[in-house]
Amino acid sequence: MSDIASPASSTSALTVRDLTVSFPIERHRRLIAVDDVGFDLAHGESLGIVGESGCGKTTVARCVVGLQRPDSGSVTIDGVDVDATRSSSERRAVQLIFQDPYSSLNPRMTIGAMLTQLLSFHDLARGPKAEERCRELLALVGLPADALTRYPGAFSGGQRQRIAIARALAVEPRVIVADEPVSALDVSIQATILELFADLRDRLGISLVMISHNLAAVRHVCDRVAVMYLGKLVEVGSTEQVFADPRHPYTRSLLNAVPQVRRDPPKNRIRLAGEPPSPLSRPTGCSFHPRCPRAEARCAIDEPALLALPDDASRESACFFRDERMDATLGARVPEEMP
Amino acid sequence: MTSILEVRDLCVSIGRGDGRFTAVDGISFSVNAGDAFGIVGESGSGKSLTLRAIMALLPTSAHLDSGAVLVEGEELATAGHAARVQRRARIAMVFQDPLSALNPVRTIGDQVAEVPRRVLKRSRTESRRRAIELLGLVGVPDPARRFDAYPHELSGGMRQRVAIAMALAAEPAILLCDEPTTALDVTVQAQVLDLIDKLRVELDLAVVFVSHDLGVVRELCQDVAVMYAGRFAETGPTSDLLGRPRHPYTLGLLRAVVDLDDQVGTLRPIGGTLPDPLHLPSGCAFHPRCPLATAECRTNVPPLIHLDVASSSDASSRASACFHHDLVEAP
Question: Which residues from B are below 8 Å from A195, CB to CB?
Answer without folding.
Answer: 267, 269
